Inverse folding.
């Protein structure tokens, strides 16, 4: 039962990754593109958390305490590495969000639109 | 001095630059001086690193905080990395000097230099790192700085468009690489490059986990996602769409470093994974086919699109796509000759392409436009610059005494090992590119006769005619390098690039260098 649930979550997350790429490619609104980028990024982060997860009860935090045997610790403690990776990726994602949103706002200030089609038209028109 | 300090130097200087600018009330001279000191220090450090890598018989290892792999993050620098680090830091230094003059009428120079230094830090870090996740972080450092610096002309809509396109494509691409790391971590249980290689080759490594699941499947997914990252980051055929807009929006010195080094980082990553870590992959043949197909498609696309461009910046952008296609194609060969060709061409292309960007930048600096029609005839007003532009184009086309010829020759030889048809792609696309450069040169020198002499005359009167000597000085340095690298190419290949490729393909030495330190550290505790 629990492994069925885990498979369901994994498949959903992979579907979200694909959905995110689809959204970035097809949405014409710049803000929606940024939102879809975040959907994708967060799905990948969740997948990473799942890699470190242990299907046991109770799960220990990855801090070794002397009243637990080492073997038990190994089988029950959560792997801390994926969490560290996700923490890094989340910070990077925030920086990327700020940067991309700044560009969307800047384009809105210049031309009053956040639509990629208008953007292509405006820039293409200037080049001609 | 420690190996790990080299990318920290530009990063540290970048961090304090905005504060320095505020403290000195944005004094232009202080900002430029500060940035040039930082870039020169980084260059000297790279020179030291280069000497050290060539005097040592095995890759240099630096463990951050003395946490040795696979527990901590390590930098592992071999000769292949060292050649690229040296070229990149020299290129960034020259770009920094060039920008001081080129952007002398623009505000916000402190942020420009902050991002330029950030770009250098990420770039050097990506070349030096020995950890697959650290590579992701370095790509993001590089990426974030690049997306920011491309939008430097923030009141121009084309710059904003280019930066947004580049930013969102790059962010998706690096997220895919992050997902790739998930697969490889889940199966191989490590992210250290030496440890990954040891697991792949069945060598025991201290303090590491057992394999889980099917490592071949995990590696296949890892390579599929990593290649899709490189396709976007290095502008290979289906992922090249952002590059022309980004380059035409960016300031010229930024285009130069993006073209020479940031794109090169993607190619470097694949070379590192394919030639050092996972040499002899069970699905290597399929990957080669992907490299040949996409690389040839990219080369044709780049060269044909060069013919129809009416903007010089876009012309150079498609030329970059063309050369990335060559490199991508050569990666698929899988022999030592191919790695020498990739390494040598990365260095040569970076230097020649920087010269091309800088000469075109001097024209744009005078004329204030990058459209070929409006630049028509400017070559005669700036003969020295036009001469240097000629050298750059001849070199990039592949005329014998100049440097790119030897890179292309090695690529040709490497592709001949697979098929003469593939090798002919290099010749055909070079010929098409030569025609495009020739057309551009004729425009710049003679002007377009059909478009009215009176109008052209007014245009000429508008220019502040004459050479820009500060910019020319930087160009002359690059031109000397273009000629010297060409003339001494046989010696350089023998003394520098052959040992570099030999060491990069020695996976045993790559693993041993980290393993010995790790074992030594464990036994001492």
């Amino acid at each position: 039962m629990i492994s069925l649930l885990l498979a369901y979550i994994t498949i959903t997350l992979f579907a979200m990754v694909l959905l995110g790429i689809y959204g970035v490619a097809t949405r014409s609104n710049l803000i929606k593109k940024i939102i879809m980028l975040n959907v994708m990024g967060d799905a990948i982060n969740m997948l990473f958390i799942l890699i470190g997860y242990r299907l046991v009860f109770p799960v220990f935090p990855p801090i070794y305490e002397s009243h637990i045997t080492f073997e038990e610790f190994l089988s029950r403690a959560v792997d801390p590495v994926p969490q560290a990776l996700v923490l890094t990726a989340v910070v990077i994602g925030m920086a990327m969000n700020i940067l991309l949103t700044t560009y969307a706002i800047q384009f809105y200030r210049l031309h009053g639109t956040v639509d990629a089609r208008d953007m292509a038209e405006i820039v293409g028109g200037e080049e001609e | 001095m420690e190996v790990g300090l080299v990318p920290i130097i530009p990063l540290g200087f970048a961090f304090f630059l905005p504060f320095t600018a505020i403290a000195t009330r944005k004094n232009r001279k202080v900002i430029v001086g500060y940035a040039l000191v930082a870039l020169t220090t980084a260059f000297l450090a790279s020179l030291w690193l280069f000497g050290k890598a060539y005097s040592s018989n095995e890759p240099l290892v630096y463990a951050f905080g003395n946490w040795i792999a696979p527990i901590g993050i390590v930098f592992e620098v071999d000769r292949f990395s060292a050649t690229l680090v040296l070229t990149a830091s020299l290129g960034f230094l020259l770009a920094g000097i060039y920008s001081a003059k080129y952007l002398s009428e623009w505000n916000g120079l402190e942020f420009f230099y902050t991002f330029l230094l950030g770009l250098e830090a990420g770039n050097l870090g990506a070349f030096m790192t020995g950890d697959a996740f650290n590579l992701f972080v370095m790509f993001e450092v590089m990426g974030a700085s690049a997306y920011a610096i491309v939008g430097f002309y923030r009141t121009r809509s084309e710059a904003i468009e280019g930066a947004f396109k580049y930013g969102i494509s790059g962010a998706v691409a690096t997220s895919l690489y992050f997902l790739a790391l998930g697969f490889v971590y889940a199966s191989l249980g490590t992210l250290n490059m030496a440890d990954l290689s040891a697991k792949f080759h069945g060598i025991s490594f201290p303090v590491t986990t057992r394999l889980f699941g099917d490592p071949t499947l995990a590696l296949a997914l890892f390579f599929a996602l990593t290649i899709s990252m490189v396709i976007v980051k290095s502008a290979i055929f289906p992922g090249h769409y952002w590059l022309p807009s980004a380059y035409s929006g960016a300031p010229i010195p930024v285009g130069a470093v993006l073209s020479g080094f940031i794109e090169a980082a993607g190619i470097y990553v694949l070379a590192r994974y394919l030639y050092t870590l996972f040499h002899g992959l069970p699905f290597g043949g399929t990957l080669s086919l992907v490299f040949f197909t996409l690389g040839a498609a990219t080369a044709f696309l780049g060269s044909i699109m060069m013919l129809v461009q009416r903007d010089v910046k876009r012309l150079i952008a498609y030329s970059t796509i063309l050369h990335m296609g060559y490199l991508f194609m050569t990666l698929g060969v899988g022999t030592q000759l191919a790695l020498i060709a990739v390494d040598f061409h990365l260095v040569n292309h970076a230097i020649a392409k920087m010269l091309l960007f800088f000469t075109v930048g001097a024209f744009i600096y005078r004329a204030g436009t990058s459209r070929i029609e409006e630049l028509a005839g400017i070559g005669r007003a700036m003969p020295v610059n036009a001469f240097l532009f000629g050298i750059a184009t001849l070199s990039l086309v592949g005329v014998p005494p100049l440097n790119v010829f030897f890179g292309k020759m090695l690529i040709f030889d490497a592709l001949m090992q697979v098929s003469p048809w593939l090798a002919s792609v290099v010749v055909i696309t070079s010929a098409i590119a030569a025609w495009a450069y020739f057309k551009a040169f004729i425009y710049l020198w003679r002007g377009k006769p059909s478009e009215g002499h009176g109008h052209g005359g007014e245009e000429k009167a508008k220019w502040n005619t004459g050479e820009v000597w500060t910019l020319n000085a930087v160009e002359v340095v690059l031109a000397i390098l273009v000629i010297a690298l060409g003339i001494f190419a046989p010696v350089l290949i023998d003394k520098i690039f052959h040992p570099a490729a030999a060491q990069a393909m020695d996976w045993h030495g790559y693993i041993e260098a980290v393993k010995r330190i790790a074992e030594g550290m464990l036994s001492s505790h």
Residues 252 and 361 of chain B are 6 Å apart (CA to CA).
